[in-house]
Design brief:
The protein has about 650 residues and is of the alpha+beta class. Helix content is about 25%, strand content about 25%. The chain is built from 15 helices and 30 strands. The strands form 7 sheets. It has a 9-stranded antiparallel beta sheet, covered by helices on one side. The chain has a 5-stranded antiparallel beta sheet with strand order 19-24-25-26-29. It has a 5-stranded antiparallel beta sheet with strand order 22-23-30-27-28. One of its GO terms (cellular component) is cytosol.
Length: about 650
Amino acid sequence: MSCDSDPYIFTTDTLPSNLRFLPPLANGHLGWRVYNNIMHMGGVYNGEGGRCHRADVPCPLAVKVELEEPVQHTYSLDTHKGIFIHTLSSASATATQSLYSHRHYPNLMVMEILLERQATSQEPVTVKLVSSFTPQSKDIRFETGPDYRGGSHIQGQTTTAEYPGGSCPTVHLIWTPVPVTLMLPPEHSEARWGFILVAASSLDLAEASFDEGLNLMATGSLRPSHEKAWQELWLQSKVEVTGSESLCKALIGCMFYLLSAFPSIHDTSSSFGGVSPGGLSNGGEGQDYWGHVFWDQDIWMYPGIALFYPKLARAVLEYRVGTIDGAKDNAQKQGYKGLKFPWESAVSGREVCPEDIYGQQEIHINGDVTLAFQHYLYLTEVSCHPMNITTMSMTLCTQTQWPSLVFSLLLNWLNSFSTLRPRNGKQWPNTLRYLLTKSISTTLRHPVKQADTVMLGYPLGLPMSPEVRRNDLEAYEPVTDPHGPAMTWGMFAIGWLELGEAEKAQLLLEKCFNNIQGPFQVWSESSDGSGAVNFLTGMGGFLQAVLFGYTGFRVQKDCLAFSSLLPNDVCELCVRGVNYLGSQMDWLLRKEEVCIILREQEGSPGNTKPCNLQVVLKASGTKIPLTPGQPVTFPREPGYVCKLISAASCWPF
């Protein structure tokens, strides 16, 4: 990448040989990997129990463009705008194909073709549109429906419900038919064509969405409305570094793909189906964890999104609220009271893990979910208002009665977030402290799959001395699988940053680059390219290493703590749009100073009234009020942002 290239645009002249690493295009409701003849819809699964997986939905936009004469190809993913662009340049013409999942209208996907004449000629220019679409699916029984306003229409239901007595989702597809060729007449210098695809759960919604798409095309607003929605997202969050182009590009890719997995910030449908490890573009039968939602969503992906977007954080929590009945059913089946969130979840919240042992024993999922709720409450104080999220938080803390079986230190500490008790009602002894002191004096002899005990310091915040923190890091690093899941080394990096060892942290963080499969910055679960693809879990862990490692951000009950530290090859870190207690802040971190700007408030996300905020520096005791629009700069030292005037507490914890 040249020094003046745009890090938000990923460009290549050849596609990856492994088509799994083509870029996904998603909008929180529809997900598709470029050129694939299969896409997925949020909340549409097929199969019962452990056979449940994202239902394959045929994609009419699975089209490649070809010119008859020799051409030069350029493929670009513009993350500024959320558009994949294929350009074919020949001596006589240039053809440009643009593909996107509409960011504002979630039921809509778009293909646009632009054909431009490059030389004066009386000959027409023709492009071929080679489609791999077939209107069938192994998961959905489709039937042809009546055409609608020139659009083709198929409709069908999945073949098998998630659980006995459950419903089978309905899918309607309406799309602009794609011809075999397009022609630029001799008298024209350029021509444009637009093709829209609508996927919806009802005929009424499908027709209304198709109408909307046609109207947007007619007024020239289809693409601008999509680009505007992405522009709005990026205005609310940016994570950029100066000094390392590869790191900057990796962070942008992580933010783009994670945001693509979430719904629009204007979505009020409450139909969000959660985030699976491979996102909506993946998760078919036997692939990418079947599209199930794990703890990955709550622990790995959620924190980096919640720091900027309270509405998107809330969507994750509302997904969990919507699965309470399934969580109760899981608990009953295992002979317990209260809630047992599934290790692998689809729509109902009932356990859909293909292997019973994990579904029964991975009980730390309750602690993971509770931690996500606590994180949201501390960032927003939204619990001061009556709402179902507050009720859910209290339910987790009072109804969950599970034995604190000690599978690991991580499990035990996570369980403490949900007031766990054995069946007989007696409290278990505090095994955590015992195990913690023993772990540092015991030589580990077994391989560790991924970060576990090192997560006690972050994200769980277990108080411990620097000596214990260091011992855990040193003990676990040599026995952790070097080819394990991608999020692991980000947690080690955060640990070393806490101890002030930035270069040690950076060496570990750089291991994550082995999981980034170019040229489109698509992550694989394992460094050799195997495992889940578009691995959002790994992206979330990597993003946290910078957002909570370099900055030292810690979301606490009464403040947002910070303790910044940058490695040698990073000159500056810019974090824009940090959302705390209804206010947005832009942070600029340098080697020896920190600058914060409190943004002028146009309106508070989630109807939360912003608080007056101040910066408190721990070593000097200096207190600096934050005034909207006025930069505040101070020497680098640990501190925290908190309310300027303390108000009555309304915390449930």
